Amino acid sequence: MSLNKGKDAKPHIGIFGRRNYGKSSLINTMANQDIAIVSEIAGTTTDPVKKSMEMANLGAVILVDTAGIDDDSPLGKERIKKSLLQISQIDLAILVIVNNVFDRIEADLIELFAKQEIPYLIVQNKTDIFPIDIDKSNALAAQLQVPVLHFSCKVADNVEILFQELNKLMPQSTLHFNSLLGDIVHKDELVLLVTPIDSEAPVGRMILPQVQLIRDVLDNHAIVVCVRETELEVFLSKVRPKPVLVITDSQAFELVDKIVPSEIPLSSFSIVLARQKGEFEAYLKGTPKLGELKDGDRILMLESCTHHVSCDDIGQVKIPGWLDRFSNKKLIYEMVSGLEGLKRPITDYALVIQCGGCVITQKQIKNRLRPAIEAGVAVTNYGLAIAFMHGIFHRATAPFQSMEN
Questions:
Q1: Which residue range forms the structural domain that includes residue 236?
Q2: Single residue among 145, 176, 207 that ends a domain in this structure
Q3: What is the rounded CA–CA span in Å between residue 398 and residue 174?
Q4: Tell me: the pLDDT tens digits for 16-72?
Q5: Into how many domains does the chain fold?
Q6: Per-residue b/e over 31-40, b at no fewer than 16 CB within 10 Å?
Q7: Do 142 and 20 reside in the same domain of the chain?
Q8: How far is residue 94's CA from residue 90's CA, in Å, rounded to a whole number?
């Protein structure tokens, strides 16, 4: 079952090119508002800037304005590094050129797009200032087999043509995603969500994975009930018929496992998201590495969002504590939040533990884990790791393993 992407992370469109090529002006023109700083001074855009907007037929998207990729100064090289990092985080790219110039810089960018399997188009910008060489433009389009659009931010009419081409190129996988539970839960069945309220839960709100599961169950015309772990036992003793599936927060696995009868399938929010995000098989293969760690092994914790760290933070406090006790080894932990790059080679790590990834796209999480998987470094995620350390790995993955096989 496929659902609209509006219920998940938004597609990301990155704008790349040299300094003073009008990338920020292009974003402002596309959004029809001043969301990026524009200046005649080359290098005005320093760090990547993201802006959400509604685009016809695509819905909500994120436009990513990047720094120019031709700045050879020491600071400029750092800016370029941040710009190129965005390539692994986008779904579609716009390469901006000016005055018919297409050189090694542009060719290198295209190679990076191809490596990350990013579709792209070329916008020849500032055509109100620099005349178009039609022969060169047509030859470039034929050579690369991509659209080359002639564009001026002062002529609003060609914005619609740009949107039409973006609609054609945007991968369908970014606009739709598989239902979280659609192949397991059916109409009128009951799904029970166990949602602890701890110090990390936002006041007056539920966390995103809980909201996503509620919506997904409703989209499948099933019935969803939420309880805290403190009311779980009472609820199960009274409700008829019994739930077809119980989903809990990973931190409550041990308690919930003791309460929920063995005949009722049990899993976690993080495991459900791991399956939907697309690296489930790699997680299943990599999770047993938790039982093979040695003294001095380095563990990489990947947290996809940035948030205030509480005294019982799941990634920085609880999982390391559980793993220290489970392994009885002296381990080294490193945390990377957001979508930042790594400070050391991926092969320095014995294991990568990724969060549920509720706020990032499937492509972003795949690209983030790809270096580890290609290098043979074991990967798992928060939910699967916690289940393994608490001895309920097989029970927590059983509802989905039968579907994968």
A1: 179-272
A2: 176
A3: 28
A4: 999 889 998 888 888 775 544 444 444 444 456 788 887 766 778 889 888 888 877
A5: 3
A6: beeebbeeee
A7: yes
A8: 11
